[in-house]
């Protein structure tokens, strides 16, 4: 199995990458329900579907409880969930209160594992006895592959509209990863 992706073209004339082509994920129109997830998990272990469903239903309430306490929730093998907010601005410190919160959301950061890629030589300027001196040191370089996403394969699929390309406002959304790329 693989995650399907499709091509799209950046049509944002204000972007540095205007006219460039990217791929983005294609999602099924349906969500996997709690019941569907519980049914799948049951096939992978010895716990009954009804017990799994009960745990999954309580997970949301438990996470909300810890969010209200200002804590992040880490599910090993999955990642970290935390509250994110958007707020209005205040001209004064006294006017900066919790009432400025306009939107809240749950942010998710997939679990990652640091993998040592190698060691590189680095030259840095340091002050030694009041004199700027170039000193060579070694620095470890790490890669942080997302554990959950590491083994997912991607496969290009045909555009559902038949043109093979989509503009920035259509399709499944998402960002191809770069700072200069469009966000549909």
Summarize this entry quickly.
By secondary structure, the chain is of the alpha+beta class.
Give your account of this protein's structure.
This protein has 184 residues and is α+β, with helices and mostly antiparallel strands. Strands 2-1-8 form a 3-stranded mixed sheet, with no helix packed on it. 17% of the residues lie in helices and 35% in strands. The C terminus is likely disordered. Helix 1 crosses helix 2.
Strand order of the largest sheet: 2-1-8
- Rg for CA atoms: 23 Å
**How many helix segments?**
2
Bulk shape: extended
Main features:
184 residues, alpha+beta, three-stranded mixed β-sheet, three-stranded antiparallel β-sheet, 2 helices, 35% strand, extended, disordered C terminus
Any chance you could write out the topology, listing elements then pairs?
Elements: E1 3-9, E2 21-25, H1 34-44, H2 49-68, E3 73-75, E4 79-87, E5 101-110, E6 115-128, E7 131-143, E8 154-156
Parallel strand pairs: 1-8
Antiparallel strand pairs: 1-2, 3-4, 4-5, 6-7
Helix pairs in contact: 1-2
């Amino acid at each position: 199995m693989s995650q399907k992706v499709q091509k799209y073209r950046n049509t944002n004339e204000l972007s540095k990458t205007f006219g460039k082509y990217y791929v983005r994920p294609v999602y099924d129109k349906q969500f996997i329900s709690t019941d569907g997830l519980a049914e799948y998990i049951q096939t992978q272990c010895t716990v009954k579907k009804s017990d799994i469903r009960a745990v999954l239903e309580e997970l949301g309430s438990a996470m909300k409880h810890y969010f209200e306490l200002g804590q992040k929730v880490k599910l090993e093998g999955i990642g970290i969930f935390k509250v994110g907010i958007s707020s209005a601005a205040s001209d004064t410190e006294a006017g900066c209160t919790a009432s400025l919160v306009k939107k809240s959301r749950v942010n998710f950061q997939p679990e990652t594992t640091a993998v040592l890629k190698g060691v590189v030589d680095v030259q840095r300027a340091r002050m030694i006895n009041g004199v700027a001196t170039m000193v060579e040191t070694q620095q470890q370089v790490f890669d942080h592959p997302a554990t959950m996403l590491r083994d997912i394969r991607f496969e290009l699929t045909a555009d559902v509209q038949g043109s093979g390309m989509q503009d920035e406002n259509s399709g499944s959304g998402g960002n191809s990863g770069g700072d200069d790329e469009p966000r549909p």
